[in-house]
Amino acid sequence: MLRSNETVANTFIKLAWNKGHFNLLNAYVCKDFQYFTTFNERVLNFYEYVVYLSAFRRAMPDLELTIEDTMVKGDKAVVYSIVSGSIQKPFFGLPVSDKIISFSAISTFEIVKGKVKSLDTLIDIAGIERQLSSDISNDFPLEIGPETED
């Protein structure tokens, strides 16, 4: 029995962002998975998504994502969430700061037969820049290496 698209989207986000259980995400993605985000100018495949998110979680180890709302229509699911945490390692040109920041994110999932084919996340970059009085560089250099979490 297939999981509902709402369950797929919410579980995917919780496993990736809150828990960093990337190995479990394999059960939730299509082989040709693609990730788009305002934080990066490139389209990422699943492996690159894991590298990107691992770096994000290392920079904000106290990161907490709260799902505020999920809307589903057909093969699309839209999840509105709030991300909170402090930047403890430089990231996207942002400086280290003990200040807790919060920003919104809207993620649109395309789900095919219970698996995520594509994910497009819009992040409130202006809100982050206002809170930290710093500009974001949205071209994340993917450094493939052994530092990715499981």
Describe the structure.
With 150 residues, the chain is an alpha+beta fold. The protein is built from four helices and six strands; from the N terminus they run ααββαββββα. The chain has one domain (5-132): Nuclear Transport Factor 2, Chain: A. It has helices spanning 5-19, 22-25, 46-59, 125-132, and strands spanning 29-37, 40-44, 64-73, 76-85, 101-112, 115-123. Strands 2-1-6-5-4-3 form a six-stranded mixed sheet. A hairpin with a 2-residue loop joins strand 3 (64-73) and strand 4. The longest helix has 15 residues, at 5-19.
Unreliable spans are none
Number of strands: 6
Can you give the mean pLDDT? 87
SSE string: HHEEHEEEEH
Just name the CATH architecture.
Roll
- Briefly note the structural class of the backbone: alpha+beta
Helix content: 25-40%
**Tally of alpha and pi helices:** 4
The description of the largest β-sheet is: 6 strands, mixed
How many discrete structural domains?
Answer: 1
